[in-house]
Write a structure and sequence with these properties.
globular, 254 residues, Four Helix Bundle (Hemerythrin (Met), subunit A), mainly alpha, 63% helix, 10 helices, 2 domains, 3-stranded antiparallel beta sheet, Arc Repressor Mutant, subunit A
Length: 254
């Protein structure tokens, strides 16, 4: 199913629906088989699908929260409402959703103050990741960072802003990965959905894309030189510059 069609179905107004339970099997199975933990498997699959869709959604492109409807999600994912409900409960516990009685679930939006705090936390974690990368990452893995921006060498990022936005996000993910710290990657995961959305929203503003690629090249040079202090400082300042931009220009978050 196309992504746009998926979210079109999600946004539909909730309609009442009576669920019908399947009738029990008429005869026993001929083999001694144990029941498969279908509900757990479907819950996990529904959770993964919903979380990915939430992460891909442009949740800050408008002021209203995106509403999720259990019935429409059930139809879109081809599963019953039970695993959908269980998956939404998990996502609510993780802070991605909030539930309103008789209205359904809504993807959580952060305030400007919260976004700035998240970017500052990201700056602390990613700068430490850069420090660790200079100590532990291979030359080949660090060198691979340059290939992310090959297509922008003969054209300005603004000419391919959507592609550059994706490369920009992948670059920051790669810095975390090069740290070699699974705990750091897990810790930053909850920040990622909101920080990525804000990076996408702001990358085309105030010539940020052009300045961004310059910052990235300097960071790569510091990593290649194994200049630990400089790499850490550049990565931290790069994110703090984003926080400053949000504070000054992103009033739509209030």
């Amino acid at each position: 199913m196309e992504f746009s069609l998926f979210w079109h179905m999600v946004y539909q107004t909730m309609e009442p629906r009576i669920e019908r339970r399947p009738s029990p099997a008429a005869a026993a199975a001929p083999l001694a088989l144990r029941p498969i933990a279908t509900s757990v498997s479907l819950r996990d699959k529904a959770y993964a699908a919903l979380k990915q869709a939430i992460m891909d959604a442009d949740i800050y492109s408008h002021r209203d929260e995106i509403r999720l409807d259990e019935r429409q999600l059930s139809v879109a994912l081809g599963v019953s409402r039970t695993p959908i409900r269980e998956a939404m409960t998990l996502l609510e516990q993780e802070g991605f959703l909030r539930t309103v009685p008789r209205r359904g679930g809504f993807i959580v939006r952060k305030t400007k103050k919260q976004i700035i705090e998240m970017i500052e936390m990201w700056a602390a974690l990613e700068s430490m990741a850069a420090r660790l990368a200079t100590l532990h990452a291979s030359d080949a893995d660090i060198g691979a960072l340059r290939t992310m921006f090959d297509e922008f060498r003969n054209a300005t990022p603004a000419e391919h802003i959507h592609e550059y936005s994706d490369a920009n996000i992948a670059f920051h993910q790669a810095i975390i990965r090069l740290s070699g710290s699974r705990l750091m990657g897990k810790t930053i995961e909850d920040l990622f959905i909101h920080v990525r959305a804000i990076r996408r929203m702001t990358i085309g503003q105030s010539d940020r894309a052009a300045r961004s690629i310059i910052d990235h090249m300097r960071i790569i040079e510091a990593l290649e030189a194994r200049d630990t202090e400089r790499a850490e400082r550049l990565v931290r300042q790069h994110s703090l510059d984003l926080a400053a931009h949000v504070a000054k220009h992103c009033d739509f978050l209030d």
